[in-house]
Amino acid sequence: MIPLMLDLTGRRVLIFGGGGVGARKAAYFEHEAEVTVISRSFSPDLDGLAIRRQEADLSALSDESLRDFLAGAFLAVAATPDPELNDRIGRLCAGAGILFNNAAGEPGDVIIPSVVRGSRFLVAISTRGKSPAVSRYLRTRLEAEYAGLDRMIDLQDEMRSMLRETEPEQAERSRILWSILSDDAIWEALASDYGRARELAIERCLHA
Ligand SMILES: C[C@@]1(CC(=O)O)c2cc3[nH]c(cc4nc(cc5[nH]c(cc(n2)[C@H]1CCC(=O)O)[C@@](C)(CC(=O)O)[C@@H]5CCC(=O)O)C(CC(=O)O)=C4CCC(=O)O)c(CCC(=O)O)c3CC(=O)O
Ligand SMILES: NC(=O)C1=CN([C@@H]2O[C@H](COP(=O)(O)OP(=O)(O)OC[C@H]3O[C@@H](n4cnc5c(N)ncnc54)[C@H](O)[C@@H]3O)[C@@H](O)[C@H]2O)C=CC1
Q1: 18, 101, 198, 203 — which has fewest CB within 10 A?
Q2: Ligand 2 centroid distance, CA of 56 (Å)
Q3: Which key words tag this protein in UniProt (predicted)?
Q4: Cα separation of 197 and 188, whole Å?
């Protein structure tokens, strides 16, 4: 498998099954994609999400009717507790060229990862389906360890621009940026005081 960052703005995502898992997958996509949840019943976890709901008993539907639902979708998630039904949806997606994620049954061609999200970065974590708990564990560790990462990205951006003006050698610019990243005192300052971290970067790394 290959990780990609996708822009799903305006894309249609279908979630089959509106239980707890369907609701978590719907919440994953709803801030960007046009999400429709198709299900017999809808968990309260879906309340407040910007999604469309479509009530249907999926096992009663022919392949033809399921294909009608899938028309125009970019990605589909099967999140019913019935692996046979989920796998049937997966086969129809494969036939129609629609990306498919399966919550229970034969794995699809998409895994939904754990995500560490800042305003300047995204980290996606997967264990290739072996242990979602490990993905979640890593996410919480990274969130705790790198609380200052957005500010470090801002500092690097600022120092890069400054160095382009003042330091002609690419190798030297690279060395200085790396020394800022490797400096515990700068990370520590970033947690509470961006200005102080910036001063430290200039004193300790630029003028070293
Ligand atoms: C393959 C995958 C399919 C996919 O893409 O959905 C999948 C499959 C399955 N998950 C199961 C169980 C649980 N999953 C979670 C949570 C998360 N699961 C997520 C992703 C994935 N889960 C994909 C692989 C990710 C990877 O590659 O690592 C996360 C990352 C993203 C998200 O769903 O939002 C999100 C954590 C988000 C976060 O907090 O960061 C918890 C709760 C918990 O741990 O908190 C439990 C209960 C505890 C347990 O069983 O571990 C079961 C067993 C069902 C059963 O036994 O009946 C299956 C089915 C199977 O394994 O066959
Ligand atoms: N991929 C993942 O991250 C995880 C997957 N799972 C698996 O996902 C599956 C779903 O879990 P939950 O959401 O907790 O189950 P749930 O029972 O709470 O919800 C299932 C939803 O599917 C709907 N549904 C079931 N059969 C249907 C049909 N024939 N037609 C229309 N709608 C139908 C139900 O109305 C309900 O809304 C389970 O098999 C579980 O083992 C569980 C945990 C995590």
Answers
A1: 203
A2: 14
A3: NAD, Oxidoreductase, Porphyrin biosynthesis
A4: 8
pTM of the model: 0.91
Every domain of the chain and the residues it spans: 1-112, 149-206
* Average pLDDT of every residue of the chain: 96
In degrees, to the nearest 5, what angle opens at C-alpha 70 toward C-alphas 64 and 71?
A: 90
pLDDT of 208 higher than 80: no
Structure tokens that stand for 149 in this block: 């990462």
Residue-wise pLDDT tens digits, 41-63: 999 999 999 999 999 999 999 99
CA distance 3 to 17: 26
> Packing angle between helix 170-181 and helix 149-166, nearest 10 degrees?
150
Q: For residue 111, which atom of ligand 1 is closest to its CA?
A: 5
Length of the chain: 208
Q: How far apart are CA 35 and CA 10, in angstroms?
A: 10
Q: Tokens 């990243």: give the residue.
A: 181
The pLDDT confidence band at residue 137, using thresholds 50, 70 and 90, is very high
- Residue 84: strand, helix, or coil: helix
CA–CA dist 120, 117 (Å, integer): 8
CB 38 within 8 A of CB 16: yes
1-112 domain in CATH 3.40.50.720?
yes
